Every structure is written in C-alpha cells, then in structure tokens.
C-alpha cells in the first residue's frame, strides 16, 4: 500500500507524534518506535514504527519492547500494526516473537465538512451526554449488551478522562426511556486536525433504525464546532459499509498484535 498525503499526515500527527490518550499515561520515543505507557488498566503498546525499519532492526525493536513492557508486569500490551508499516514481513516477525493478531479493522477517514450533522432518531429515543459516573455506567451497559465484551477497563479510562481532561472527550448514550440502547464516544486530539470515533455499538433489537448514523452526525457536529478537519474510525466489517455511505474513505487497515507475558 502506497501512502497517500492524508495517510502520511495521519501517521505524522496521530502516530509518530501521538498524544497520550488519557490522564496518567505518557508517550515515549524509544529508538525506532513510539509507545504509550500507563497503568495496567490503560492502553499500553506501540503506536508507530519507523518507515525505514529494516528486518534486523525490526527484530531488535520487537525484542526491546517485549523486554520493556514485560518489566512493567502488566497483563498484556499491543503492537498496533498498519498495513503500510515496514518491513513488509513485520506481521510474521511479530507472530514469531509471540504476538497474537486480533481481527483487523479498516482505518476510515472523512472530512468533517462533508459529513451530515442532522441527528435523526427513532421515536422514543433521545441522546444523553455523558458527564458523570452514572452516565459512564449507562455507556457500559449499552456497550456490554451490544458487543458482549467486558466494559471494566474502558470504564476506568472513560472515568479518568471525564475527571481530569473532559475537554478532550465526548461521550453519548442513546436512551429508550430508562434503557440505554446504544453508546459512543469521541476522543479529541488538540494540536491535530483529527478526532477519533469509538464505540457506536447498538443493542440487537434497536439495530437498523438509524441510531448509529445519528451518533455519527452528533459527534461530527461537535467536531466541526471545535474546528477539527477529519474524523477517523477503526471500523469493523459491520460499521464500515455505513461509514462509507456517509463519506468515509479507507486509508489503511490496522491489526492489533497482542503480547501476553507468560506468568
């Protein structure tokens, strides 16, 4: 995959010069990689590797990161690999070192100015902004029902962000009466032109009714109001077709390679 100007900008702003994604974490340049380091409940891992990384240096960089993160005694860390990363056989080298790939996602990006911002919801559903622990709990209920995965680590991260850096975070829950039926969040990256969309899971009985689109429009309107130029999404196969219809284009694919130290 040959990098486009937009992909080159994304790599520069969001990976090589990554900002910490929450309070209490730090981003470090360590030789040929950039990594984020935090507590056990934070996201820990490699976000960027040098585009001139060759085979010998790649093996050394992998070994160095395994040694470093293992010394922290966290349960796992991730090497966030993109399809255009070098060397071309980096996925094989990561697997040989003990990393396990998780399902790939598609990196989709859209200009904020071209996205719809009209929020159209089914009758009986309203959006509620998340501002406190009670709202985070509602997000968690919707997330676990929609995705079937545990919310505890994400809940910790969201609560920390609301407490200490609320201006860089937008959380929203779609409510049908007293029941949360969908939730989503947006992470704003000051100093860049990008805002990231995350979540967007809707519980099964409410799918296909336009709630996912409404959550995109709601966050696009906020991003536009704050001067962001692009929205980015790591999209699953379920959400990618909807996002493409709304104006998102594929820049790359990304695969989490996860390393879990032996205990």
In brief, what are we looking at here?
This protein has helices spanning 5-16, 55-72, 90-96, 133-147, 152-164, 211-225, 240-246, and strands spanning 26-30, 33-37, 45-49, 77-82, 100-101, 105-111, 125-129, 169-176, 179-188, 194-202, 230-235, 249-259. The chain is of the alpha+beta class.
CATH architecture of the largest domain: 3-Layer(aba) Sandwich
Give the terminus-to-terminus CA distance.
38 Å
Identify the overall geometry.
globular
Strand content: 25-35%
Average pLDDT: 95
Structure characterization notes:
The chain is an alpha+beta fold. The protein is built from seven helices and twelve strands. It has helices at 5-16, 55-72, 90-96, 133-147, 152-164, 211-225, 240-246; strands at 26-30, 33-37, 45-49, 77-82, 100-101, 105-111, 125-129, 169-176, 179-188, 194-202, 230-235, 249-259. Strand 10, helix 6 (211-225) and strand 11 (230-235) form a beta-alpha-beta unit. Helix 4 (133-147) packs antiparallel against helix 5 (152-164). It is globular, with a radius of gyration of 19 Å.
Q: Which SSEs are present, and which pair or pack?
A:
Elements (H helix, E strand, L loop, with lengths): L4 H12 L9 E5 L2 E5 L7 E5 L5 H18 L4 E6 L7 H7 L3 E2 L3 E7 L13 E5 L3 H15 L4 H13 L4 E8 L2 E10 L5 E9 L8 H15 L4 E6 L4 H7 L2 E11 L4
Helix pairs in contact: 4-5
């Amino acid at each position: 995959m040959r990098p486009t100007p937009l992909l080159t900008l994304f790599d520069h702003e969001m990976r090589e010069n990554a900002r910490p994604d929450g309070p209490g974490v730090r981003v470090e340049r360590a030789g040929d990689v950039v990594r984020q380091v935090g507590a056990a409940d934070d996201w820990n891992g490699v976000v960027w590797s040098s585009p001139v990384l060759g085979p010998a240096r790649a093996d050394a960089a992998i070994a160095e990161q395994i040694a470093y993160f293992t010394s922290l005694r966290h349960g796992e860390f991730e090497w966030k690999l993109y399809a255009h990363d070098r060397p071309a056989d980096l996925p094989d080298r990561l697997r040989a070192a003990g990393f396990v790939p998780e399902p790939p996602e598609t990196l989709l990006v859209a200009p904020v100015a071209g996205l719809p911002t009209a929020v159209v919801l089914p009758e009986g559903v309203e959006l509620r902004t998340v501002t406190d622990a009670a709202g985070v709990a509602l997000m968690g209920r919707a997330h676990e029902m929609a995705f079937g995965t545990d919310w505890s680590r994400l809940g910790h991260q969201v609560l920390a962000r609301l407490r200490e850096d609320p201006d860089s975070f937008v959380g929203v829950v779609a409510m049908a009466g007293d029941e949360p039926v969908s939730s989503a969040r947006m992470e704003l990256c000051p100093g860049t032109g990008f805002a990231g969309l995350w979540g967007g899971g809707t519980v099964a009985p409410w799918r296909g009714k336009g709630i996912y689109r409404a959550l995109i429009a709601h966050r696009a309107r906020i991003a536009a109001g704050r001067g962001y130029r692009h929205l980015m999404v790591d999209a699953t196969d379920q959400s990618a077709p909807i996002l493409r219809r709304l104006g998102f284009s594929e820049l790359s694919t990304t695969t989490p390679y996860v390393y879990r130290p032996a205990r």
